[in-house]
C-alpha cells in the first residue's frame, strides 16, 4: 500500500501538533515550488519566451491542485481543533492555542509560512504589473500603427482618415 500524503484525510486524527507540523511542512514545500515557478514565469515574460511559459502551465496546474488540497486539509485541521475544544479561526491562532512546548516548536514555522505567503503575493503582483505594462505598450504601438502617429482621432467628420496603413502607404 502506498504511503499516504501528509495532506490526505487521516483515518484517525493525529495529535494536533503532529497534524499541524505535517501540514506546515507540505505548505512550505508548495510555497517554495510556487516561488520558483513565479520567478521562472517572470523571466519568461521578460524574454518573451512564450513556448517556455506555456511549458510552465502544467507545473502551475499541479501546484494549484496541491494548494487546493492544502486548503481542504487546513479546514480539516480547524474542524479537528474545534472538536477538541480549541477555538481557532486560523492556523496562527491554532498554533498559539497549543501548550507552550508545542507552540514554541510551531510558531516559527507558522511565521515563515505567513512570510512566504506575503512574498508569493508580492511576486504575483510583480508579474501582473509586468503583463499589464506590456499590454499597455502593445496597445500604444497598435494605436500608433492605426493612426499613423497622428494625435487626431482616426474616425471623424472633419478630417477623415486615409485608407491604408501609415507605415505601409506613406510616401517617401
Can you give a write-up of this model?
It is a single chain. It is elongated, with a radius of gyration of 26 Å. Mean pLDDT is 83; it is low at 1-5. The chain has five helices and no strands. The chain has a domain at 16-123. With 172 residues, the protein is mainly alpha-helical. The chain is 73% helix and 0% strand.
Entry summary:
The protein is mostly helical and 172 residues long. It has helices spanning 16-47, 50-83, 91-97, 100-147, 166-169.
C-alpha Rg (nearest Å): 26 Å
What is the SS-derived class? mainly alpha
Q: How much strand? A: under 5%
Mean pLDDT: 83
The helix fraction, in percent, is over 70%
- Taken in chain order, the helices and strands follow as HHHHH
Largest beta-sheet characterization: none
Number of helices: 5
- Low-confidence segments, ≥5 residues, pLDDT <50? 1-5
The first-to-last residue Cα distance is 77 Å
Would you count the extended β strands for me? 0
Based on Cα principal axes, name the global outline: elongated
Amino acid at each position: 500500500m502506498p504511503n499516504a500524503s501528509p495532506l490526505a484525510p487521516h483515518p484517525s486524527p493525529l495529535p494536533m501538533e503532529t497534524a499541524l507540523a505535517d501540514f506546515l511542512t507540505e505548505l512550505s514545500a508548495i510555497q517554495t515550488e510556487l516561488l520558483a515557478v513565479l520567478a521562472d514565469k517572470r523571466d519568461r515574460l521578460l524574454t518573451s519566451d512564450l513556448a517556455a511559459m506555456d511549458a510552465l502551465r502544467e507545473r502551475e496546474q499541479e501546484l494549484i491542485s496541491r494548494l487546493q488540497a492544502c486548503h481542504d486539509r487546513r479546514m480539516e485541521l480547524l474542524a479537528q481543533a474545534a472538536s477538541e475544544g480549541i477555538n481557532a479561526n486560523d492556523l496562527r491562532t491554532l498554533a498559539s492555542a497549543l501548550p507552550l512546548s508545542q507552540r514554541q516548536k510551531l510558531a516559527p514555522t507558522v511565521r515563515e509560512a505567513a512570510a512566504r505567503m506575503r512574498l508569493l503575493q508580492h511576486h504575483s503582483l510583480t508579474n501582473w504589473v509586468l503583463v499589464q505594462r506590456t499590454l499597455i505598450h502593445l496597445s500604444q504601438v497598435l494605436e500608433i500603427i492605426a493612426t499613423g502617429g497622428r494625435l487626431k482621432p482616426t474616425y471623424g467628420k472633419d478630417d477623415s482618415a486615409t485608407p491604408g496603413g501609415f507605415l505601409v502607404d506613406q510616401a517617401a
